[in-house]
Specification:
By secondary structure, the protein is of the alpha/beta class. Helices cover about 50% and strands about 10% of the residues. Strand 1, helix 9 (about 140) and strand 2 (about 150-155) form a beta-alpha-beta unit. The longest helix is centred in the C-terminal third of the chain and has 22 residues, at about 230-250.
């Protein structure tokens, strides 16, 4: 129950302006409240308190870390907070964010406030390469807000010069501390590569996935898109090959990795559970 000035006017019977309440509380209590009015105020306070205690949904945010009752996270990454991040802490934040998502307890964010706060600059702590698939909206499944991560999305989370250049910008020019390559289960692009689909410009994209098919042991049969276990093994092999390519094709990122300035991690998102399983990585 919300007690407002209009509520006081209607049920308690006073006509003072709000400023008078703060300026002369003693006089207000002595002259403006009759017995019935005072009882109404006390009753309202008791009911409001009882309501809060009996229903967290009406008085509390989803996550305790979001702050006091009714508050939302409006803070964003700053130059200082980004500089304080390490590859390890960046990975830990991605894992924590996914855990919140899986538990159904994402942070309650004030997105308009975050938009305003990041309008003049951005300081993301990670860059994530993930698939185009609509069921893997990466900021949501990792529970990150405006300005937290760079996101590159393409079918099959494949690598090309444009994506690689974007990663160099994210890490060398903009200060991100972690590169994450995240594939997913039951991937349509992987299935297309397995079945040798030919379709316009998609054909060239799927060609980039073919080496991952060869990386899966020959004894894994049948080697078709109908075999979900095989498809997921190809997806994992594709993630690992992309990670290898990042090191091999970018001297800039390789140097940063060797110096420990950034980390590199792979992972797989499970469409059925929402969980990201991260692999062994260079976030040391």
């Amino acid at each position: 129950m919300k007690v407002t000035i209009n509520w006081f006017k209607q049920y308690v019977g006073f006509n003072w302006l709000p400023g008078e309440l703060t300026g002369r509380p003693a006089i207000f209590m002595k002259t403006k409240l009759n017995c019935s009015g005072l009882f109404a105020v006390i009753a309202a306070a008791v009911l409001a308190t009882a309501g809060c205690r009996s229903s967290n949904q009406s008085c509390c945010t989803i996550s305790d870390s979001a702050g006091a009752a009714g508050s939302a996270v409006s803070a964003v990454q700053t130059k200082a907070s980004q500089a304080a991040m390490t590859p390890q802490s960046a990975l830990a934040e991605l894992k924590a964010g996914n855990a919140r998502f899986v538990a159904g307890q994402p942070l309650h964010r004030d997105f308009p406030a975050q938009v305003a706060a990041t309008a003049s600059g951005q300081y993301p702590f990670a860059v994530v390469l993930s698939c185009l698939d609509s069921r893997q909206p990466i900021e949501i499944v990792l529970d990150q807000g405006v300005g937290d991560i760079f996101s590159a999305r393409v079918a099959g989370n494949v690598l090309d010069d444009d994506i690689l250049g974007s990663m160099e910008f994210a890490c060398k020019a903009s200060g991100a501390k972690l590169i994450a390559v995240i594939g997913h289960s039951n991937c349509g692009a992987i299935k297309g590569a397995v079945d040798d689909v030919q379709l316009g410009n998609l054909t060239g994209l799927l060609t980039k996935i073919k080496p991952a098919i060869d990386a899966v042991p020959a004894e894994v049969q049948p080697r078709t898109s109908k075999n979900s276990a095989f498809v997921d093994q190809v997806s994992e092999a594709n993630v690992r090959l992309v990670m290898k390519e990042i090191r091999e094709r970018s001297p800039i990122l390789r140097e940063m990795l060797d110096k420990g300035e950034i980390g590199l991690v792979g992972g797989m998102y499970d469409l059925s559970t929402g969980k990201v399983q991260f692999y062994d990585n260079d976030a040391k």
